[in-house]
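Researcher: Good morning. I'm working through a list of sequences from a screen, and I'd like to move beyond sequence-only analysis. For each chain I'm collecting a predicted structure so we can compare shapes side by side. This is the next one on the list. No need for commentary yet; just the structure.
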Amino acid sequence: MKGCKKMDMSAKLKSMGVKTVYSYINRDPKSNLPKVLEWLEKQDDNNSVASQVKTVRSAITDPDNNWSQLLYSLWTDIDDEQRKKLFTNAIINGTMIGLQIQNETKIKYDCNVPWAILMDPTSACNLHCIGCWAAEYGNKMNLSFEQLDNIISQGKKHGTYVYIYSGGEPLVRKKDIIRLCEKHHDCAFLAFTNGTLIDDEFADEMLRVGNIVPAISVEGFEEATDYRRGEGTYQSVISAMKRLKERKLLFGISCCYTSKNSEVIGSEEYFDAMINMGAKFAWLFTYMPIGADAVPELLATAEQREFMYRQIRKFREEKPIFTMDFWNDGEYVNGCIAGGRSYLHINANGDIEPCAFVHYSDSNIKDKTLIEAYKSPLFQAYRANQPFNSNLLRPCPVLDNPGRLTEMVEDTNAHSTDIACPEKASDYCNKCVEAAEKWAPVADRLWNEHPRIKAGGKN
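Model: Good morning. Structure tokens for this chain:
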């Protein structure tokens, strides 16, 4: 216990130091940030971070560099109070303090502990998008405010300070979401939302609490977005972005690339348009054929997935926007991050699932604690099997290695959490076999293009 207290104090001292440095940078970012990096470079006697610091310092002192433009835009384009609160909650609490607690908990209970928890306040949605599993659920499931509050309270004890909402459409519960932001003012929240419910009143509330960020789902330009999400959706989303930008609120986009829209989603024209609208980050996902209403024809082809792989890496050298590709970035996070390794999903019925795209569970928040779920057979199976492939560009146990999910579900007696039309894991995986077979040689070629640390190593 004494050791834990010393470690805890060490983390607090470090956080105080980081806050002091942030305050110094905040006074004059363009002048003071390079000075801080120069100081770090001089203090690095062991040359452990000197090369990285030098690279960063070089980038941020070049006004034409895309990372320099993105970084300094956080001071010119984002509200001062929100920036400070998100830095404190996500970086200091979520990473510096939180990771230490997570690691202690992992050792104590011999299980994964997530950096972030994704949860669905409701299965209800005001849209009916083609191929979306939530469309078949309807307004049948909701987690109460007390249940959501309890999940966050439990999570913080284990070092999790980052919470993400999905659905359904989470902003159907916007009043409860704001209440949770107020109560857990030390946490950072993100909401995957269709954006159509972001009106002036809610935008003002977001500015007031300061610790929630929307990732707005867009399928491309107007034709592609309205094709899948319904007529008028794109213009509603553009209006929401304008409201957020006017208030200097941080926001990003969430893009699902399919066989119908990959060329648009991955185009320079589209990314430039979203940057001009004010988006600072982009989550990239690929379509997964979940549930009875799935449309397997929407699965991106291997050629389209490679196109996205190359485009996102190109944009990281050119565009002032931070991008994350849930499938194609496996090389940076050592494969699959689900099963509590970095995150997990709790649906609106309380089922604790390994991933938002894996609707199978052996635990429910109504009768198990989070730790009991982390130690459950299904989550331990994930832990034992990750990474699922030595080629980290084939990270997923469904889309890239279809038999792996089937084995884990059947071995642990996990059940389908689809309340409308339960689906066997084998049936779900079988819909991805052809895509996996076609992606494998492409992924192997890409993997061998550049030397990398092998799976299980440190990236």
